Amino acid sequence: MKDISCKLLVIGAGPGGYVCAIRAGQLGIDTVIVEAGKPGGTCLNVGCIPSKALIHAAEEYDRIVHLANGRNSLGIRTTKPELDLSQTIVWKDGIVGRLNSGVSGLLKKAKVKIVQGRARFRDGKTVEVETETGRQIIHAENVVIATGSAPVELPNLPFGGFVISSTEALALTSVPERLVVVGGGYIGLELGTAFAKMGAKVSVVEAQTRILPQYDAELTRPVAKRLQALGIEVMTGAKAKGLAKAGGTLLIEAEDGSEKSLAADKILVTVGRKPVTQGCGLDELVLDMDGPFIRIDERCRTSMRGIYAIGDVTGEPMLAHRAMAQGEMVAEIVAGHKRAWDKRGIPAICFTDPEIVTVGLSPEDARRTDVDVKIGQFPYSANGRAMTKMGEDGFVRVVARADNHLVLGIQAVGQGVSELAAAFGLALEMGTRLEDIAGTIHAHPTQGEAFQEAALKALGQELHI
Ligand code: FAD
Ligand code: NAD
């Protein structure tokens, strides 16, 4: 097979890699992308998209179950629905398939050459790929490592059989009767909630003293309340010890040190993700590492000239939109543009029920910066639109400097607040002050009005509370 030479080689076609390649192609850079699996990476195939599809189906089903459950205040009468999860999975796979083709089409449109197979470094400028038709050697002036991440396996609870990762959970064709989720973080709670809504008896085992420990307790309280209402058993301060000999049972060490057992048809282990740095010949290079991740600077440059790294392989936050933003930036740097990572914040959303959105500093983070802060919080119980959607649990909170009112962070928890992430992100990125948000006409009746009211509250000028 004839060797390929290019200016830019991207390894991995997840959100980081494919965005980098598309932008590079648009800029006229001769670009090759290598992908071992399907275009779109974790996010599109076994992450963001399929999980949100399943969450949506579960929400729809749960809503009708709720309406069918006796008399409801909306006055809607219906009969109990049925869920055919295998059909739901066909629908979800259809969306994934359409997006796979979409990514391939966008790469081709940008004149990016796609090589299918696993890439392995020979040296910093040469990569070999085992393709279906033989070994392909690629020489590149610049290489971007965008190999992503994979689920962390617990040594005492290896994946296999009824111990599953998010990947298998997103492909189940029947709802397990009893699902034990180990890890009450993003994936555990998003998927645990979805399966509970689909009828599983769900238990969550979380090692820390509370669920979603990366968020402040005030933000996670409405989520904990809803988990309880859905009948999900949450065990905090508890660790999974392993399987009982008899099988079908997870042994855990509870907060008080006692041993408990939980019967399970499936055990979903979601205790974090690890960077994919094995099996691609990284040991042939001398890259500085940052713990298990590849160390990068503000231009996503690694310690080797001409080698960049982006996305999950470079560490937290492991979010698709961070990977995409890094990919876009690196393409422009390779094209000779002057770019550096100067983002003010990376929004994060947890698609639980209710949803959580954060961007920038939490009140606690802000107080640690030694500046005086002003905080405005507006509850959804005082927002008309939230009432009409029966989503009164939650709030929007704005954190700003006390001296000049510069907004430092915005958080919200509530039904459907994920769509406010765009407004929050824009406000932070544009260097907004409280007066800018307070002085912007927010359409009525919307949940977004709570954002304006939170800013007004921080200024001591609240109108609706
Ligand atoms: P990845 O998407 O992991 O892509 C890496 C690609 O590289 C893969 O396709 C892999 O096959 C390929 N590859 C690896 N090694 C090689 C090699 N040697 N040769 C060739 N190809 C290789 N993030 C969000 O922002 N929002 C969400 O709602 C969200 N939900 C999630 C839900 C779940 C269940 C999971 C698991 C993750 C979720 N994430 C979410 C995280 C998100 O998926 C990742 O942050 C994102 O996919 C990272 O993109 P990436 O390009 O760095 O890597
Ligand atoms: P996570 O870090 O969000 O949560 C892991 C949880 O497992 C933590 O709360 C941790 O305390 C707990 N844990 C660790 N070891 C344990 C043990 N032995 N027993 C019990 N609990 C234990 O990780 P995740 O949920 O696996 O998700 C991985 C990453 O994927 C996230 O960090 C996030 O970046 C990304 N993701 C994002 C979204 C989103 O943006 N909506 C959704 C899913 C995943």
Please, what is the average pLDDT?
Answer: 97
Proportion of residues in β-strands: 25-35%
What share of residues is helical? 25-40%
- Going by helix content, strand content and strand pairing, the class is alpha/beta
Which molecules other than protein and nucleic acid are bound? flavin-adenine dinucleotide, nicotinamide-adenine-dinucleotide
Continuous helix count: 13
* Whole-angstrom Rg: 24 Å
CATH class of the largest domain: Alpha Beta
CATH architecture designation of the largest domain: 3-Layer(bba) Sandwich
Count of folded domains? 3
Classify the fold: give the CATH topology of the largest domain.
Answer: FAD/NAD(P)-binding domain
The first-to-last residue Cα distance is: 71 Å
Characterization of this structure:
The protein has helices at 15-26, 41-46, 48-68, 85-109, 166-169, 186-197, 217-229, 320-334, 363-367, 384-388, 421-429, 434-438, 449-458, and strands at residues 4-11, 31-35, 113-116, 118-123, 126-131, 134-145, 149-151, 163-164, 178-182, 201-206, 233-236, 239-243, 249-253, 259-263, 266-269, 273-275, 289-290, 293-294, 307-309, 348-350, 355-360, 373-379, 395-401, 407-414. The protein is an alpha/beta fold and 465 residues long. The protein has three domains: 4-46 and 89-151 and 274-334, FAD/NAD(P)-binding domain, CATH 3.50.50.60; 163-271, 3-Layer(bba) Sandwich (FAD/NAD(P)-binding domain), CATH 3.50.50.60; 354-458, Enolase-like, domain 1 (2-Layer Sandwich). The strands form six sheets. Strands 1, 2, 3, 4, 5, 6 and 19 form a seven-stranded mixed sheet that branches. A five-stranded parallel sheet has the order 8-15-9-10-11. Residues 11-17, 34-37, 41-43, 47-48, 51, 118-119, 146-149, 166, 187, 276, 280, 311-312, 318-321, 323, 351 line the site of flavin-adenine dinucleotide. Residues 154, 182-188, 190, 205-208, 213, 239-240, 270-273, 317-319, 349-351 line the site of nicotinamide-adenine-dinucleotide.
